[in-house]
Amino acid sequence: MTQKRDSFSNKFGVIAAAAGSAIGLGNIWRFPYVLGENGGGAFLLIYLFFIIAIGVPVMLSELLIGRKAQRSVFGAFKVLAPKLKFFKVVGVMGVSAAFLILSFYAVVAGWTVEYTILAAANQLVDKTPEQLTDMFSDFSSSVGRPILYLVVFMAMTAGIVIGGVKNGIEKYTKVLMPILFVIILVLCVNAVLLDGAVEGLSFLFQPDFSKINGNVVLEALGQAFFSLSIGMGIIATYGSYIQKKENLLNTAISVSIADTLIAVLAGVAIFPAVFAFGIEPDAGPGLVFVTLPNIFNQMFGGYVFAVAFFILLLIAALTSSVSLLEVVVAYITEEIHLNRKKATWLAAALVTGLGVFCVIYPVLFDSFDYVTSNFMLPISGILISVFVGWIIGKQQTKEELEEHGGKVKVIGVLIVILKIFAPIAIALVFMKNLGLLDLFNR
Ligand code: TRP
């Protein structure tokens, strides 16, 4: 490689970009809803345990693989273990997973563009709950506008990725992530001031252990992986842009804290309002697009909060899709040697094309979601842990982490987690998703 590899300029840039990837629709829509169905506070406790015990180590492994190899996920395993050809499968799956996830993720993101515009144009007010429900189902099952907004959203994503790591991804995430944080704080303050907020908060924070069973536990682990963007080597590509002077353990911990905080704050912003206006907390996919507009309609200052909320959702989706597109772009520039500009437009066009099929054939949409999160994610997740735990091993892991980061005292624990605990836990989720763990059925 003759050219110097593009990199993030400093610690804040790294964290903004990686947190931008992690914090997405998974945090603001999915987390509150999954938590609502799985015992509220008790789910939260288990989720936190998995973030710390498995999420942080796996994220750290990905960052380490990328930085050590100085290659995106596709080439990383070729560089680190040229003899172990088998591990190349992680790179292949990482790039294909990024491609598939993005093609349905961008469709949902397109919905957020539509709803941001509707909210801003004051089109969500004075609608009955039935009208809002019809509006959403008519829109999401139509073809014209969803495709239009898919294209708009992908053009925005490409516009950021085309600038490169420092002058594109870092530049925008550094501005967008603080805005996201401010918006969610404002929404939270408003939510806790509502009459009846206490009920919503106790739903969120009061553990009801009777709701805990094997399924809930595995659900928490699955959510932790999706939310942190880990398990497919996608974060490894970002790791390859991190300078040697940065401390990877700190990065993994900071990003995990930011991701978890935003998920919890999303719950704080949503549940008090849900309870204050007497709506069921487990509304599913409609929660964000149907239930919340209803709530905003009944609320003082609802217009402002509706616009703020959909902008929040749009920012979250955008910075996540940037990370997914970057994985595909890095693959094309490194392996096919196109320049970044061409690679970005090519990747964006291919994803948009596939996204159009997802709009037209909802079954495709569902199966991409299903295959990526239930098959590709756990298989790669196991391979990544095993790779760092058993093949890179303790000595080299220690060297890579301590090069500039100072002494890492937890290295022994980390390796044990990666060698044994994480692969077994992920394998259990995998088997549950395959329906092999019926003993856990409620
Ligand atoms: N973590 C993002 C969310 O919470 C989604 C996401 C972005 C993702 N990149 C990923 C999930 C890579 C898995 C792998 O919405």
What does this structure look like?
This protein is an all-alpha fold. The protein has helices spanning 11-22, 25-37, 41-69, 73-80, 88-120, 129-141, 144-161, 164-192, 197-205, 214-228, 234-239, 248-276, 286-298, 302-336, 340-360, 362-405, 411-433. Helix 10 packs across helix 17. The chain is globular and about 65 Å long. Residues 21-22, 24-27, 101, 226-227, 229, 232, 234, 320, 323-324 line the site of tryptophan (TRP).
What's the rounded overall pLDDT mean? 87
Count of DSSP H/I helices = 17
- Rg over CA atoms: 21 Å
The amount of helix comes to over 70%
Shape, per Cα inertia axes: globular
Secondary-structure element sequence? HHHHHHHHHHHHHHHHH
Whole-Å distance between the termini?
55 Å
SS elements, strand count: 0
Oligomer: single chain
The fraction of residues in strands falls at: under 5%
Strand and helix map with partners:
Blueprint: H1 11-22, H2 25-37, H3 41-69, H4 73-80, H5 88-120, H6 129-141, H7 144-161, H8 164-192, H9 197-205, H10 214-228, H11 234-239, H12 248-276, H13 286-298, H14 302-336, H15 340-360, H16 362-405, H17 411-433
The structure holds tryptophan (TRP).
Give a quick summary of the entry.
With 442 residues, the protein is mostly helical. Helices cover 79% and strands 0% of the residues. The protein binds tryptophan.
Record keyword descriptors for this entry:
single chain, 442 residues, mainly alpha, 17 helices, 79% helix
